[in-house]
């Protein structure tokens, strides 16, 4: 598994998203993913599956220290005391002493960002959380989180795929050594039906989904966390490290979201 280094932190460039996965099916997917070589698992309080994820972590033969585990604080838990209480419950459900990355899942209209960040920093000081970040934050909200935190903001997890433009967030992340973690990178199935992505994939013997994931991880400081509930899809998503998209391929994909190649070129590893 390829790693990205962000502010001295090594993070797998591809992870497993677990949204809408539950119970034994979720645990089975975790175990299969880890057996195939995945080392980044993403969950959230909102998903209601932290216990199932924890079951996978305790049943796998992969050492805990080799797994990069992310969870996210539910929007109703962003007050200072609720952060501390809910994250301790998350650790109990995940059956682990720490998470590698803790995110604010969505910004709150009623709880100031600095209040939540203060509690997250406290959890870092206590060793319950190694690193912190945000999710679904605008550039101005990212800036506020950075100013409030005594520790680095490692990532902003946002919806990003070939049909979703995120240029302002990408540029801010690039300028500030922040990882953009792409959730729903396959656009909830739209990717597999796109003719442009299919045609590009045919040149490499790859699927449209593999092209979309490759397009994401070929960008500087971008990782992706596609959801996959069965072994075939887990294998397919992982099989993206043996080819590289050309500048012409990237141009075609950028055309799907407005053709921003001139301003975006520096953000790609080409």
Notes on the structure:
The chain has 270 residues and is an alpha/beta fold. It has a domain at 12-159: TIM Barrel (Alpha-Beta Barrel). Helices cover 41% and strands 17% of the residues. The chain has 11 helices and 10 strands. It has helices spanning 23-36, 50-59, 80-94, 113-125, 139-148, 167-175, 195-204, 208-217, 231-238, 247-255, 261-264, and strands at residues 3-6, 9-12, 16-17, 40-42, 68-73, 99-104, 129-135, 153-159, 179-183, 222-224. Helix 1 (23-36) packs across helix 2 and helix 1 packs parallel to helix 9 (231-238). The two termini are 20 Å apart.
Mean of residue pLDDT? Answer: 94
Strand fraction equals: 15-25%
**What is the number of helices?**
11
Helix content: 40-55%
- Which architecture of the domain at 12-159 does the CATH hierarchy give at level 2? Alpha-Beta Barrel
CATH topology of the domain at 12-159: TIM Barrel
Number of strands: 10
Helices and strands in order:
Elements (H helix, E strand, L loop, with lengths): L2 E4 L2 E4 L3 E2 L5 H14 L3 E3 L7 H10 L8 E6 L6 H15 L4 E6 L8 H13 L3 E7 L3 H10 L4 E7 L7 H9 L3 E5 L11 H10 L3 H10 L4 E3 L6 H8 L8 H9 L5 H4 L6
Parallel strand pairs: 3-4, 4-5, 5-6, 6-7, 7-8, 8-9, 9-10
Antiparallel strand pairs: 1-2
Helix pairs in contact: 1-2, 1-9, 2-3, 3-4, 4-5, 7-8
